[in-house]
Amino acid sequence: MRLRIISVAAAAAVLAMVQPGTAVAAFDPSTTVTFVVTSGALTMSVPVSAALGSGAPGTQVSAPIGPVNVTDLRALLSASWTVTASSTDFANGPSTIPATSATYVPGTVTTTGTITATTTSVTLSNSPQAVVTGSSGVGDNTATWNPTVTVSLPTGAIGGIYTGTLTHSVA
Question: Residue 35 pLDDT more than 60?
Fold first, then answer.
């Protein structure tokens, strides 16, 4: 009986030392906090049209075509992508200048976020070729460049307006 009285007295003394409004650590409640980092798509925007100017047969026409923009909202730990470009032949009625008469020079790439952009200048063709590659990306990122397209006009070119389609793709 004496032992029980001492134990009750010891417990009362411990409780008396705890300040009002404080909790004993073993009984502290905890909260699990969760959230979601959203992810989106890999997209690209390109100019709707571009005019390279005019030139005589045997010369070149050349101009920047306007900004090409890749937006990677996939929020990946290790992101990469490749942009390809291809062109149709340039036609003026029955007269054509082959796509292989044109070059594509990406120029300087401006990026946001974490991505390493590497450019490759190419002679265009009807088959897609890599022109800008993004690597070592983390999270969301963007890349923008203003490529220059140059067309060598053959000495036998017929006068008139030539039209072709430059196609970009990103994957």
Answer: yes
Q: 162 in helix, strand or coil?
A: coil
Who's near 51: CB < 8 A, 6+ residues apart? Answer: 63
33 CA to centre of own chain? 31
pLDDT in tens, 69-121: 999 999 999 999 999 999 999 999 999 999 999 999 999 999 999 999 999 99
- Domains by residue range for the chain, with CATH: 30-170 (2.60.40)
How far is the C-alpha of 152 from the C-alpha of 69, rounded, in Å? Answer: 26
107 in Cβ contact with 66 (< 8 Å): no
Take residue 151 and report the two structure tokens written for it: 């067309």
Q: Return the amino acid letter for 117.
A: A
Question: Backbone dihedral region of 93: left (phi > 0), alpha (psi from -120 to 50 degrees) or beta?
Answer: left
